[in-house]
Design goal:
Length: 285
């Protein structure tokens, strides 16, 4: 049987969440430790464990059909490759930073300066758009140390909590791009594998929608029902069921997790009681 080939980071920050996503999609992978290639036992898919930096070229060559990759790597090394899903994990930004004690006016301050980075193409493009000429030093890791050892005046690297910058006495001065894990596709994917990809995307979207929402159950006095239904629109409209006490009803609905606490406050002021909140495994709409 034909199988779609997916590239996943071999080890590092994307590995766990990528494999968890496949698992949540109901895809079991027969994973011998240290194997670089593994097959799913219940979905037409083969997993290739690769270094992130190599994946764009494998996609271009059609060695793999799809990949889970940080958007930052794609922009740096495979700008032309198509993104089919944004996956919502490994969120970070690519930023310029300088020593804390150096005054900063604006981006023109980087003119003629030395910048250490592992993202030369992205930085070059950014600087060219601003009309700035700088001297790039390409290093593959521990970029934040460069200003402290006199190798550069500033750096351009990934930031999420900001603690690596802080520990190295640096401050973030410009955000070049925001990134998250994405599902990307090879231009050489066959028609047959496109259909497998569509099936996979359907599963991924159901999982991601589930992750973004919570199932809410609550009790409310009947004279407050209308008000509460307005607060809780639900997927179509909320489910309302009578309780043994004829003056009360139980209401079930779905709430976006980012709006959740605001909604709960509104529900409480509208008279809701016994509010239960449950995770949603999958959501098909
Ligand atoms: N601090 C961070 N917070 C959130 N996401 C991050 C962070 N650092 C990196 N990432 C994301 O995870 C991806 C993988 O980073 P990681 O450091 O594991 O691998 P890498 O060194 O870029 O690649 P390789 O697999 O070639 O060694 C990055 O491309 C980025 O999208
Ligand atoms: O803002 P923070 O939360 O501190 O995260 C930023 C750091 O995380 C990444 O490095 P990583 O830990 O992946 O190490 P690496 O250099 O070995 O890739 C990135 O290159 C930064 O150094
Ligand atoms: Mg890293």
């Amino acid at each position: 049987m034909n199988k779609i080939k997916i590239a996943v980071q071999k080890s590092g920050r994307l590995n766990d969440d990528s494999l968890r996503l496949l698992k949540d999609c109901g895809i079991s992978i027969d994973n011998g430790k240290d194997q670089l290639k593994a097959s799913s036992t219940n979905f037409p898919l083969e997993v290739f464990y690769l270094r992130n930096g190599d994946i764009p070229q494998y996609l271009r060559d059609g060695v793999v059909d799809i990949a889970i990759l940080g958007e930052n790597t794609l922009i740096e090394k495979g700008d032309e490759l198509e993104i089919v899903e944004r996956l919502g994990f490994s969120k970070c930004r690519l930023s310029l930073a300088i020593p804390k004690n150096v005054k900063y006016g604006n981006v023109q301050d980087f003119e003629e300066k030395r910048i250490a980075t592992s993202y030369p193409n992205t930085v070059k493009k950014f600087l060219a758009e601003k009309g700035i000429k700088a001297d790039l030093h390409i290093i593959n890791g521990s970029v934040e140390i460069a200003p402290n050892i006199g190798l550069a005046d500033g750096i351009c690297d990934l930031v999420s909590s900001g603690s690596t910058l802080f520990k190295n006495n640096l401050k973030e001065v410009e955000v070049i791009l925001k990134s998250e894990a994405v599902l990307t596709v090879s231009p050489k994917i066959s028609g047959e594998n496109r259909s497998i990809l569509e099936k996979l995307q359907f599963r991924i979207e159901s999982v991601l929608k589930g992750r973004r929402n919570r199932y809410v159950l609550l009790n409310a006095p009947n004279d407050q029902l209308e008000k509460i239904i307005e607060i809780l629109p639900g997927m179509k409209s909320p489910t309302v069921m009578p309780l043994a006490d004829k003056n009360w009803s139980s209401i079930h609905s779905v709430v976006n997790k980012d709006e959740f606490w605001d909604v709960i406050d509104e529900l409480k002021s509208a008279g809701a009681e016994g509010i239960l909140v449950c995770p949603i495994e999958k959501m098909v709409v």
